[in-house]
Amino acid sequence: MSEVDLRVEDGIATVTMNRPDRLNAMNPAMREQLVAVFDETDADDAVRVVVVTGAGRGFCAGADVSAGGDAFAYEPDDVRLRDGGGRIVLRMFASLKPVIAAINGPAVGFGASFILPMDFRLASTTARFGFVAAARGIVPDAVSSWFLPKIVGVPTALDWSLTARLFDADEAMSRGLVRSIHEPDALLDAAYELGHRIAAAAAPVSAAVTRRLIWRMAGSDHPMHTHRIDSAAITALGRTADAAEGVNAWREKRAPDWALSPWTDLPDLPWPAEPRFEDRAGTEQRDPD
């Protein structure tokens, strides 16, 4: 049985973590499948939006620690120096398609970190959250120390990370972590409704570039850096068939028929240089653009 299921229907890809007996805790197979599934959704022009959820009553209970106290005891000379959860979220960060979390139950540890680079987070009334790394004797995983303060602010990020307490969907919404709360049987429908609204409104290439502009420039130290890139993007996209179609469809009061694909037609823009990562073997590793 696959640890991650992918279903594509009516422009929406549903990615379901499928270890319900373990509350969808991440193991090595799930880790590799979660990285690979975003390669699939990026390459499929039929996919306009990705919805991520969990099978059963949990979203994701974190890393599978069934090995006991040695769960995080990697060998000092292990070349797999990169945090596995970080590989997943950085691949999702580079997604060409908008990503929606449908958080159907507990999202703890990696499960909480995993939702941070998703563009929208919808929660069930049964959802519970916990950034619990400090209580396990490690540190925040999956790049959450970068993402979480940007979403909820430094004081809340410190509160949740240092108390390592569980909190409910109401608190998550009040602090800006989730967009909306839904009854369990209405959660996926709400995620799909949002996905269809995005797909109906945004040209696929425009959505991909917009997502990158907002996420990648979040840490810029001056607006001029973003001005340089969005000026280049407007210039590049303004000459395309999609720009003409968007204006004509608006003037003619009809739905647009987009021609460009994010997989093949992204403009070459002057993004800031992306950091590289070398493992202990000295091998350069880089996440896909």
How would you characterize this protein structure?
This protein has about 290 residues and is of the alpha/beta class. Helices cover about 40% and strands about 15% of the residues. It has eleven helices and eleven strands. Strand 2, helix 1 (about 30-45) and strand 3 (about 50-55) form a beta-alpha-beta unit. The mean pLDDT is about 90.
Distinct helical segment count? 11
Helix and strand content put the structural class at alpha/beta
Distance between the termini: 30 Å
For the biggest β-sheet, the strand order reads 1-2-3-4-6-9
Silhouette: globular
What's the story with the biggest beta sheet? 6 strands, mixed
Query: Percent of residues in beta strands?
Result: 5-15%
Overall strand count: 11
Mean pLDDT: 91
> What's the gyration radius in Å?
19 Å
Structure described in brief:
By secondary structure, the protein is of the alpha/beta class. The chain is 40% helix and 15% strand.
Please describe the structure with a list of short key phrases separated by commas or semicolons.
289 residues; alpha/beta; six-stranded mixed beta sheet
Describe the SSE topology.
Elements: E1 4-9, E2 12-17, H1 28-43, E3 49-54, H2 84-93, E4 99-103, E5 107-108, H3 110-114, E6 120-124, E7 128-130, H4 144-152, H5 154-163, E8 167-168, H6 169-174, E9 180-182, H7 187-201, H8 204-216, H9 223-238, H10 241-252, H11 262-265, E10 277-278, E11 284-285
Parallel strand pairs: 2-3, 3-4, 4-6, 5-7, 6-9
Antiparallel strand pairs: 1-2, 7-8, 10-11
